[in-house]
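Weekly structure sync - notes
Attendees: PM, LS, DV (DV joined late)
Agenda: review two folding runs queued last week.

Item 1: First target. Sequence and structure tokens pasted below for the record.
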Amino acid sequence: MKDKVKKPFYKRIWVWVIALLVIGGIASSQGSSTSDSSSSSSAKSSSVSSASSSSVTSQKWTLADYDALAVGDTLSGVGGANYDDIVAKFGKPDTSSDTQSGDYSMRSADWTSLTDGSVFLTFTKQADGTWLLSSKTSSDLK
């Protein structure tokens, strides 16, 4: 009789997916706030906002563009689209924020002033300093 050995909860992929979504949601909800009142927290966060301009949305996001984005590994981002390539094609995001927790650095980038919907992307920083796409969400794209 073999007993099935269960993985510890922190080694399950769904735990990390939820953690990334929560961190991304917190980071994007803070917008351009750079308040540092939570000194007891072990996570370091910084936010950067860019003003919306006509050049920001010079390339219109479509559902086909969104679907074509390669999403890499949820934790490492390996295999995902490069942040710089996406910015080169679609312009700077309306808001972006970088969050660091332990060895992980993540960047949330939101294109929210689009005519047809919104795009929310999360990137994971690589050892070489590049950012690779690790999750994506859209709203009302056509």
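Item 2: Second target, run right after the first with the same settings.
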Amino acid sequence: MNKKGHVLNAVLLSIGLGYLLEPSGTEETFVTILMIGVPVTLGALFPDVDTEFGKHRKTLHNLPILVAFVGFPYFFENLEYVWIGILTHYVLDVAGSKRGIALFYPLWSEEFGLPVGVAVKSRMADLVTVVVTGVELVVAAIIIYRIPQASLELGGQAIGTVLG
């Protein structure tokens, strides 16, 4: 995807995440959207810095970079949501474009993508971006709402088994 697509994805994802995390629709929802939106958008743009140095879709489009940004807040207590932007950039490049990315670079230069993507300059690129964002939000909703509930249910069953 192009920079416009990554920004569109990050902004829509941030709005959706803001409502998933703070669904009241009050001022707190909009504060949450802003709190998430700025770092997610910056993170979504970060991987394309490799268009100016290194090898595009390799140097900054790989799992070691993502892992570094996931770990960063644990060590330095900032950049908490930047990794979400980087992850969504990768998802959009893998699922939304024809080329894919080198997830395991520098160990392996092969680029991985899904057969559903479109060319970066395609007139369908914005539609694909919105569809990918929708899928990301469904996954986020499942992670936010279903996984904790399922964990509580399993925990309750385990405790019931041990106590019963």
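Discussion on item 2: Residues 3-163 form one domain.
Action: LS to circulate a short write-up before next sync.
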